[in-house]
Amino acid sequence: MSGTSTRPETPAAGSDVAALTRPSSMSTVSRLTTTVLRSREIAIALVLVAVIAAATIKTPSFLFSSNSWRDLLLTPAILMLLAVGQAVVIITRNVDLSVGSVLAITAYLTGRLFVDNPGIPMVVVFLAALVVGGALGLVNGLVVALGKVPALVITLGTLYIYRGIVLTWAGSNRINASDMPDGFLALGTKTVLSIPVLFLIAVAVLAIVGYFLYTSRSGRDMYAIGSDPDAAELYGLRVRSRLVGAFVLSGALAGLSGVLYAARYGTISSGAGTGMELQAVAAVVIGGVAIFGGSGTVWGAAIGAVLLVTINRALPILGIQDFWQQAVVGALILGAIILDRVLSARRTRKLVEARDAS
Question: How many C-beta neighbours within 10 Å does residue 349 have?
Fold first, then answer.
């Protein structure tokens, strides 16, 4: 009886293994459908489309007005840059909570450069912001990698340190649009074929970082480090240098965001970028990057940033009160984390079943 009771399970287990070990037996259409259904990025994009559609049905001017399309792309551009850098750090199983303060420092630096050096080329200002942002990220990376201190603790500390620096530097002073050249401020509103320049810059950076992570050995090492830092070190990967590089990239992109923030808003004070570090983390998590590292893409993080900003614009149109707006965002974050854990557990179970059956 015991022998007959166990036999019916064997073919089912064998079929599961076949599905895992022989994907080439699936038709092209089946493989494409499966890929689409399992893609977190496509799922987030569909949610974004649904939010835009719902808001447009309720208020057609949300999408069909003179500036609606421009605003739809322009508003999330800065958060997209922060999310891309944050995604790289989180993929390595770390987090950078200082990006909002780095943005504030470089935004105010941008204004001071224009005020104190009339006629300074814009290229020099961009480079200065990138260097300063990268240097601040380097401080984070060195302490985390060499001191082996949790990134959450270090970057929480530098969040306040960097914010204190800009508060001391700026004080109650404020740099206005009249203090900066018109050509620079035009970047904040200029469009190319109806697409904002700021959004094009964000997409260009996204494409470069995405290509780097997907194709380069250094990029793949970051995924390996996030999956298992100890195993990566035992394997001989350059764990410390990769971690430092991730934080430098995050800082540099926060520095670039500071320049674009100055161009976008024209008015810069010591409070610039307050709270944007949490928005960046939320965008990354919503975009499908595992908070425990090792999986996800910068493309998903960028879509998550667009979704987060679009939701904040769409929910008031749909008549949802402020409290519930925050609750919806929180539910998205929790849902993304729970889904990630469920999918991870499912993959682990399938791999164990395949191993035991082989």
Answer: 10
DSSP single-letter state for residue 192: E
pLDDT tens for 281-329 read 999 998 888 888 888 899 999 999 999 999 888 888 888 877 777 787 7
Closest by Cα among 133, 352, 156 to 255: 133
Residue 34: the pLDDT is 58
d(CA 332, CA 325): 11
1 pLDDT higher than 60: no
Alpha-carbon dihedral angle through residues 290, 294, 296, 302, given to the nearest 10 degrees: 80
Give me the phi and psi of 268, to 5 degrees please. Answer: -125, 125
pLDDT in tens, 39-86: 778 888 888 898 889 889 988 888 887 788 888 899 999 999 999 999
**Cβ within 8 Å of residue 158, ≥6 positions away:** 97, 98, 101, 136, 139, 140
- On average, the pLDDT of the chain sits at 85
Q: What are phi and psi of 189, to 5 degrees?
A: -130, -10
**What is d(CA 162, CA 251) in angstroms, rounded to the nearest whole number?**
12
Reference 252, options 107, 113, 134; nearest CA is 134
What residue spans define the domains of the chain? 41-357
Q: Do the Cβ atoms of 188 and 264 come closer than 8 Å?
A: yes
> What sign does the dihedral 190-193-196-198 (CA atoms) show?
negative
SS3 state of residue 149:
coil
**Backbone torsions φ then ψ of 191, nearest 5 degrees:** -125, 155
Region label for 266, one of left (φ > 0), alpha (ψ between -120 and 50) or beta (otherwise): left
Sequence-ordered list of residues with C-beta below 8 angstroms from that of 269, at least 6 positions apart, any chain: 108, 170, 173, 174, 175
Centre a 10 Å sphere on the Cβ of residue 212 and count the other Cβ atoms it contains: 15
**Is there a contact between 250 and 83 (Cβ–Cβ < 8 Å)?**
no
Q: What is the CATH topology of the domain spanning 41-357?
A: ABC transporter involved in vitamin B12 uptake, BtuC (1.10.3470)
* Ramachandran angles phi, psi of 296, nearest 5°: 110, 170
